[in-house]
């Protein structure tokens, strides 16, 4: 959005029934639910577009999400709130490719990729991916995680995922070469301190659904959620929040209820909440004249020869992400790692992972995201209160779980809390869409 278009935006009203601060997924889900109830709702967003941490850049025709992100249609709230056919999802394979030495081994879910079963069996027989004992222990853990209900997972004793896997005999090469790099990219840490409950919820969702990207990039998710919101104001920075009043760069606005749905750090500053630990990630988007592999699966380095935790030739499965025949590769590194030395190390490691030269690759975009993921320490508390005081509500994945599911659920809970403050009955949940 340009400065001229921001200047032409509708003036901020002096009053609304509900003011939502932040147009990320939680704020948009909250605002849409309130709008469907007929509530007069105004949304204030500091950025030039909706989405919060779910944003997309288009660079020379290439779609580069701000961080390698996926949407999982197995999430119940995703199926309730989003029009998935409208997103034109492009699913990724239910597989992971592990680089060991000069070779690559493919592991896949045999239920969803039965055609890969011979390749998976060969990878396990050739060795290097854990003992038979460890593979069996992992199989039991994965099966139990898939079959357990969410309520049961959330009520069991919680420890860090590293300790939990050790306790269950998953402590060899399978863990080191496959699970640890995979989970590092998902959780934003290598030390195994994230909640085992939360880790199980994520693995359960991966095993039950096919993570995918929308045709137009992840930006399509918040864009869809914002459709029809007439009270959306972009480029407005909120300076202070009190029950019944919001002060911003566009002026003051009063309300019966204020919902703060910003990132955790901003929410903490505005509401004087305890600090929330965040995880940092860096994503490098490279373009190659030729695909280094025909696989569209996630790749990890089983030998851990550098900073890369995962990489994928996304254009092999998401054709819309590239404007021509060139390939788009997304690579994730832990932490704030945008320096040239790290980039050189990444390219050298990618040559090992793919077994192809990266000499002619071009860096299309670098996303350094200091607050990419909300940390989920032990013990997991997935339902923190959203009502802070009469007329003051907080929303965001930091009140639920660090996922799109958690953000959307927190938005629903915040909307219901706002309706209570307005003296209105809560709305029933939307039905699950096919």
Rg for CA atoms = 22 Å
Which whole number gives the mean pLDDT? 93
Q: Strand percentage, roughly?
A: 15-25%
Parts with pLDDT < 50 across at least 5 consecutive residues? 1-8
Number of strands: 19
Number of helices: 14
Structural class by sheet pairing and helices: alpha/beta
Described by the principal axes of the CA atoms, the overall outline is globular
Distance between the termini: 35 Å
Helix content: 25-40%
Q: Could you explain the architecture of this structure?
A:
It contains 14 helices and 19 strands. The chain is of the alpha/beta class and about 425 residues long. The strands form 5 sheets. Strands 1, 2, 9, 10, 11, 12, 18 and 19 form an 8-stranded mixed β-sheet that branches. A hairpin with a 2-residue loop joins β3 and β4. The longest helix has 18 residues. The relative contact order is 0.21.
Features:
about 425 residues; alpha/beta; 14 helices; globular; disordered N terminus
Give a short overview.
The protein is built from 14 helices and 19 strands.
Topology:
Blueprint: H1 3-7, E1 15-21, H2 25-36, E2 41-45, E3 56-59, E4 62-65, H3 76-81, H4 84-87, E5 90-91, E6 95-100, E7 103-108, H5 117-125, H6 132-147, H7 150-155, H8 161-167, H9 173-187, H10 196-208, E8 212-213, H11 220-226, E9 232-234, E10 238-242, E11 245-248, E12 251-260, H12 264-271, E13 278-288, E14 298-301, E15 308-313, E16 327-334, H13 340-354, E17 362-374, E18 387-389, E19 392-394, H14 404-421
Helix pairs in contact: 2-11, 2-14, 6-10
